[in-house]
Amino acid sequence: MEQQPIIIKRKKVIAAGHHGGSWKVAFADFATAMMAFFLVLWLTATASPEQIKAVEGYFRDPVGFTEGGSPNPVDLEGSASVVSEAGQDIESDPMVISDDVVDTLSDTLEQRRMEELFQELKQRIEENQTLQAFKDQLLIDITDEGLRIQIVDRSGRPMFDSGKAELKYYSQEILFELAKTLGSVDNKLSLTGHTDAKPFGGRPGYTNWELSADRANTARRALVAGGVRAQQIARVVGLSDSVLFDKKKPNAPVNRRISIIVLNKKTENSIHSSASAKGAPLIDLTAPTEEEQTEAMEQLESGEWLKDKPEPAPGELSW
User: Fold this and answer.
1) Which of 86, 185, 289, 302 could form a disulfide bond with 90, CB atoms 3.0-4.6 angstroms apart?
2) How, if at all, do strands 257-263 and 146-152 pair?
């Protein structure tokens, strides 16, 4: 019988396997946590009651705690890094700005807005064919009251017929085009009618005062029809020939004009404050006297107020 060969298997036994270095990271975290824990114990053992109260308040409301005598949670009195000034997360005292500074800033912003509107109108005149044809009748400037647009008469090209308050067709187109820009702003508008110094003699009792006021109202209606809000109109005035454009030539066509002012806030507030009621008037001229009350009562009881009143004679005014 043939003898089988003897096979010897040898195993290499390793005492301990390699587990990597992750345990070192875990041990470092544990050591750090223990150090922090003992540090907190030491701080609480050495802190005063006020400091403990500050720490307690901080952890209850880290953002806006108000309790405690210091804005810092713990004051170590120089034994560690201490912030001696409040950080940005601590609410500081509100900034106080005087009324004069506020008014100055407001006026500056208002002036800048008027200058922007001035450039916008100037660009619209250059781009619009209707306004371009009549740009020699448009005068635009910035005054103390705001941005002023004056539409003046030229020789052979008046805004209105002589002695009338009806707009020429081209004057109406000018106002319609201006209304597109003026209606887009929040500022109030003021309209003023002016005439030359030539007395009006069309009909008795009707003077340049009535004519200038009627023309200003006609311009107002055209602007509203063109897109300006009715609530945007703050003032409509007729000044007759009291404010001439060309004082050396009182009868010059340029004196017949309509002024449109985009009011700044200061002027707008001044108009409202001067017109608003400020207590009882010293003399109330609207209150009827006892005699007037008695006479009105007698007319009411007798029915005299129902009778037709005679028509005024030609040329006689009836207010």
Assistant:
1) 86
2) antiparallel
